[in-house]
Write a structure and sequence with these properties.
single chain, 211 residues, alpha/beta, 7-stranded mixed beta sheet, globular
Length: 211
């Protein structure tokens, strides 16, 4: 399968980053976490046979040097559903399947992404549940109607549950991971890191220990 993966990101200096985490550890530390998280994901995806893209939230951020590792596209405007719909549909036109992930899940492992690719050979959709009721990963090989995106409440404790009910077939569910929103979530996230850390995951782990 020809599988694309889009990492949804915001550009430092153009959009607020990890605002709830920043309230706990400070804005600069929250931005440091975000940058280390992005580097961890880049390292992970570079080990996998997949086609990566940055899905950038700001049109003005498309030329930022931070996004030099992969091809990039603008998410468009609107809420999270609108942006996911835009990126998913655009990439599905040229790929057999598309995976969407956030840029703030550094514990995302090679095994999880590879399992997603394998499961998309047998299921129309795959979802990685987040512990807050949302998801850290959504993959599919079929079109998702605009109504599904529009009628799903975002940043809600039942986001994942409602989305699953609206999909036209049951998704394969991956392991659950922590969505890092507060300082206490950092330790939970560390416990979910893969056994074989890549270099940037190790740097993030050391950074958290000295926070």
């Amino acid at each position: 399968m020809k599988v694309a993966i889009a990492i949804f990101v915001k550009t430092p200096g153009l959009s607020p980053l990890k605002t709830r985490l920043a309230a706990s550890i400070g804005q600069q530390a929250a931005e440091d976490f975000y940058r280390l998280s992005l580097k961890s994901i880049v390292c992970t995806l570079n080990e996998i046979d997949i086609i990566p893209f940055w899905a950038i939230g700001e049109e003005a951020g498309l030329n930022d040097s931070l996004w030099s590792d992969f091809d990039k596209l603008h998410t468009g405007n609107g809420n999270l559903g609108d942006r996911q719909s835009s990126v998913y549909n655009e990439l599905l036109e040229k790929h057999d399947a598309v995976i969407l992930v956030g840029g703030d899940a550094p514990q995302l492992s090679k095994d999880i992404v590879e399992e997603s690719i394998i499961q998309l050979q047998h299921h129309d959709y795959v979802i990685g549940p987040a512990d807050d009721g949302g998801y850290y990963l959504l993959g599919g090989r079929c079109k998702i109607s605009p109504e599904v995106w529009a009628d799903t409440p975002w940043s809600h404790e039942q986001t994942r549950e409602i989305l699953i009910k609206k999909l036209d077939s049951s998704p394969h569910l991956l392991m659950t991971l922590t969505d890092v929103d507060t300082e206490s979530d950092l330790e939970k996230m560390l416990s979910e890191m893969p056994n074989n850390l890549n270099d940037n995951q190790q740097k993030l782990k050391d950074w958290i220990k000295h926070l």
